[in-house]
Design brief:
heterodimer, A: alpha/beta, Rossmann fold, 6-stranded mixed sheet, 23% strand, globular, B: mainly alpha, 2 domains, two-stranded antiparallel ribbon, 10 helices, 2 strands, membrane (chain B), transmembrane helix (chain B), cell membrane (chain B)
């Protein structure tokens, strides 16, 4: 879509932010995500992950530093385009799916941008097909299983044809089958992904590269497997692998990227 | 789990009444109720005709009489006080079965009962032939303030989510040995209600964030255009126009 393919999808430089109550959440974050990359953003609770995410589409502003998405700076006059380019999938699908039916929910973003009629229908169908939920278009979100709701939440964002997909804890509350289905969907998408998670095996499965955010700053940035194997780093930032999981063992079923 | 979208008031079907655009039906129902209310109460026969008209609509919509009558029961608490009117109203009195009843009270009771029943019956017919979602689209189309329509549609979407949350809180209370059994426990219930309010309020904020993230800027985008042809308007207006003719006869005869 973008004529200049070398422009990174996301460029965050020197981002610092303090909440109005004085609590400082970010202390100068630098992060660049290239086009088509899948990056995991790891960090313990309270590390500033959500604060960072809310800066990506300009919901939080007013701190120091800059964010730009595919070359377009996040500024008030660009907000509409920025919000189309950055698709955030929030953690609780009940927050994300606010329309009475799945179809209307997926249509919300494109319709808010002015799309109507057959073009809109087409957009909705494609997005629902991408997540395998086309048969559920006329169902109310509350009647779907949690995993299905999460997939629809991804579709609502895909319908906006985003430059970068930002997922907040995509694997939380999913049973193993839904978790795998979501992983298959994410792998099949041709879009830049930034995945915020504590689920380290999931990060290893999906993201070749990881970034550790700790106490409002980037503490490490590298290949996911190498970061997960660095015991000292993991311990220093309250990141723990689940019992019995060893990132050193080669994955037998699937390649790591 | 609640009934959600396929609300229990709605009766699925493919009749000509089901097929009418929601805003036509809404306008027709409203007009019908206004006509009924403005009919003089002395024209008793007119109310019989109105009831026959509604019965005809129900027949076209293939709504069984039993279904309709059961739904009409919702009216009972509202008209209960009408029954009292003949006993308490002032003025000329008549003896019925040994009870002294006020004539104007009897007319008043008849007036409330007849008009109320017809109005409720018309609304029940509307609700059983129109999906909740379609009703909202109809209201939007009839230019009801968009904010009200948005509030109503969020109520439909989140009613179940919040009642689930309430149920989970109740299970959590009972799992810790609490059974609300008397006035001493009202404090706990009030605190639960407060917690539920705060949770819902916070959810409201998160939903708003999600909306803003997808380009919400104050008004809901139009996703489904509901349009009605002249023929559909004409078809929907049969009910109020016939009723109007009856009403005019009621005033002149």
């Amino acid at each position: 879509m973008d004529p200049v393919t070398s422009t990174p999808s996301l460029e965050v430089a020197g981002l610092a932010y303090a909440y109005p109550d004085g609590h400082q959440a970010l202390f100068g974050v630098d992060l660049t995500v290239g086009q088509g990359e899948r990056v995991a953003l790891l960090g313990p609770n309270g590390a500033g992950k959500t604060t960072l995410v809310l800066h990506l589409n300009g919901i939080l502003t007013g701190g120091v530093g800059s964010v730009s998405v595919a070359g377009l700076p996040v500024e008030k006059r660009n907000l509409a385009e920025i919000r189309r380019r950055v698709g955030i999938v929030f953690q609780d699908p009940d927050d994300q799916l606010f329309m009475p039916t799945v179809r209307e929910d997926v249509a919300f973003g494109p319709a808010a941008a002015g799309m109507r009629g057959a073009e809109l229908e087409e957009r909705v169908r494609t997005a629902l097909d991408q997540v395998g939920m086309a048969d559920f278009a006329d169902r109310p979100p509350h009647h779907l299983s949690f995993g299905q709701r999460r997939r629809v939440a991804v579709a609502t964002v895909l319908a906006m044809r985003p430059e970068i997909l930002v997922l907040d804890e995509p694997s939380s509350n999913l049973d193993p089958a839904s978790r795998r289905e979501l992983a298959d969907i994410l792998r099949s998408l041709d879009v830049t992904v930034l995945m915020v998670t504590h689920d380290l095996p999931y990060a290893l499965e999906l993201c070749p590269r990881s970034v550790v955010l700790s106490e409002g700053a980037i503490a490490a940035d590298g290949r996911t497997r190498e970061l997960l194997c660095d015991d000292e780093l993991m311990r220093a930032h309250r990141l723990e692998l689940p019992f019995g999981f060893d990132p050193r063992t080669p994955l037998l079923t699937r390649p790591a990227h | 789990m609640g009934a959600g979208h396929a609300h229990k008031l709605y009766r699925h079907g493919h009749s000509p009444v089901h097929g009418l655009p929601p805003h036509c039906k809404l306008a027709a129902t409203l007009a019908f109720v206004v006509v009924v209310v403005s009919t003089p109460r002395e024209a008793v026969w007119a109310f019989g005709l109105y009831a026959a008209l509604l019965a005809a609509v129900a027949a076209v919509a293939r709504i069984p009489a039993g279904f309709l009558l059961r739904r009409l029961l919702i009216e009972v608490p509202f008209v209960a006080f009408a029954v009292l009117m003949p006993f308490v109203a002032e003025g000329e009195r008549v003896q019925v079965l040994g009870m002294s009843l006020s004539v104007s009270g009897l007319w008043g009771a008849w007036n409330v009962l007849a008009k109320g029943t017809l109005g409720v019956a018309a609304s029940v017919l509307l609700a059983s032939t129109t999906e909740l979602r379609a009703l909202l689209l109809g209201l939007q189309r009839l230019k009801l303030p968009p904010l009200l329509v948005q509030i109503a549609s969020f109520m439909i979407r989140y009613g179940d989510v919040i009642s689930d949350e309430m149920r989970r809180m109740s299970i959590a209370r009972r799992s810790r040995g609490f059974e609300a059994s008397g006035i001493r426990h009202w404090g706990v219930l009030a605190k639960t209600a407060g917690a539920l309010f705060i949770r819902s309020y916070e959810r409201g904020e998160r939903v708003y964030l999600a909306m803003v993230s997808r380009g919400y800027a104050g008004s809901m985008p139009v996703i489904d255009e509901v349009a009605a042809t002249r023929a559909q308007w004409a078809y929907a207006s049969v009910l109020p126009v016939t009723a109007l003719a009856v009403c005019l006869m009621g005033w002149t005869l």
